[in-house]
Write the C-alpha cells for this entry.
Amino acid sequence: MSGFDLSAILSNPEYMSMLMHGMQMTFVIFFGSWLLAMTLAILLLALRVSPLRIGEPIVAAYVSYHRNVPTLVQLMLWYFGIFTLMPQGFSDWLATHNAEAIFAVIGLGLCQAAYFSEDLRSGLRSVSSGQMEAAQALGHGYTSAMRFVIMPQGVRNALPPLINHSVSLFKNSSIAIVIGAPELTHAVKEVENLSFRTFEIYTIGTVTYLFFSLIIMGIGAYLSMRADPARRARA
Amino acid sequence: MIQDFINIINDYWLLLLIGQYPNGPLGGLANTLILSALAIALAFPVSILMALARLSKWRLLRWPVTGLVYVTRGVPLLMLILWCYFVIPLWTGADVPSFLIMLVTLVIYQGAFLSEVVRAGIVSLGQGQMDAAKALGHGHMSAMRFVILPQALYNMIPSMISTFVSTIKDTTLGYVINVPDLTFAASQVNNQLLTQPFQVFLILAVVYYILCWSLTYVANSIERRITRRRAGPRNARLPAEAAPLKTITEQL
C-alpha cells in the first residue's frame, strides 16, 4: 500500500457519495432524535411539576431506566426486540421505510429525553423560590411569572448541560451502526472495505465528527453568551 | 411470557455470567466487570497525569494534552474503538485480543474524561491551599502530592463511581469488535434461540439496570456524606453551602 493519501478518497466520486449519504443519515438521526428528545423532555418536566401525584414516580422511573441501561442495549431492545412484537402489517411497513433509521431515532430520542428533562429540571430548580414570590408581588400571575422571570433564568442555567448532552447525542448517533442504520460510521466502514485505505478514511471520519462536535459546542458557547444579560450588556 | 424469561435464565445463566469460560475465553457479566474495573484502575493514574499536564505552566505539556482531551470529547467512542482496533495490531505486529484493544480504548477515553474531573477538583480547591503549602516550605510537586491531590481526590470519589458506571455502559460498545462481554453473551443466546429476541434483550437491559442503578445509589450516598464533611461540623445544617463538585461524566 502506498503512503498516506487523502486525495485517493476525496477525489473518488463513489466514495464521496457514500460518505455524503452517511453524513446525511447521521444528521437525520441527530436532528430527529434531538427534536423527539426535547419534546418528550418538556412533557416529562411538565408531568413532574404538575400536581398529579402519579407524575413524579412515572418520570423518575423513566429517567432511571434510560440513564442506567446502556444506549446500545436500548437500541438493541427496540430494533431486535420490540420490532418483532409489532403487528405484522405495521412491521412490514416499517421494514420498507428504513426501519433502522426510525428505530435509531426512537431509541436515541427516548434515551436522550431522560437526560434533557433532568437538565431542564435542575436548571429550573436552581432558580430560587424568592424569584417567584417577588414576581408575584410585582403583580405577575403564575404563567406570566414563569414566562418572564423563572423560565429565562432556568433555561440559562440549563444551557451548559443541554449543550454537552447534545454533543453526546451527536456522537451517540454512531451507535446506530449496531442496528444497521447507514450513518456516517457505517459509510466509513464501507469505504474502508472497498478502498483498503483505512488510515485515510478513519481520519476523514474522525475529523468530520470532531468538526461538527466543535460546531455544536461553539453554538452552545454563543447561546450561553447571548442568554447571559451581564455579558450581553458588555458586548 | 413470564415462563419464557424463567426458561431463558434457567438455561443460559452460566453463559450470561461467565461466557464459555472453562472451554473458551472468559466472557459474560464477569468479563464486563473485569474490563470496566481494569479500565478505571488504569485510567485513574493516567487522568491525574493528564490533569497535572493541563494545569502545568509549560505549553509543551499543556497544549498536546488539551488537544487530546478535546479530540476525545468530540469524537464518538465507536470511532476511537475502530482506530485502536486497526492501529494497535499494526504497531505491535501481534495478534492482540479484542479485550486488550477495548481496554486501551477505554483507558484513553475515560482517562480524558476523568482528567477533566480531576482538574475541576484541583481548581475548586482554590489557590490558597497551594500558597499555604508553599509558605510551609513545600515545593510544587510535594505540595501537589501531600496537600492538593489528597483533598481533590477525596472530593472526587462520587465522580469516580459515576465514571465507573459510564465505563460499564461503554464496554457494551466492545460488541462491534466482538469483545466477549455481557452484551456479546446475550446476542449469542439470541442467536441460539432465534425466536425470543425481546425476552433476551429485556433480560440484558434489566441486568445492566440493576448493576448501574446500585452503583449510582452508592455514589449518591457517598456524595451526601462528603458534602456534609466538606461543610464542616459547625455548618452541618447547611450542606448546600459547600459547592457541589460538578460531575463531568460521559453518558452512553
User: Anything to note?
Assistant: The first helix of chain B runs from residue 2 to 18. Confidence is low (pLDDT under 50) at residues 238-250 of chain B.
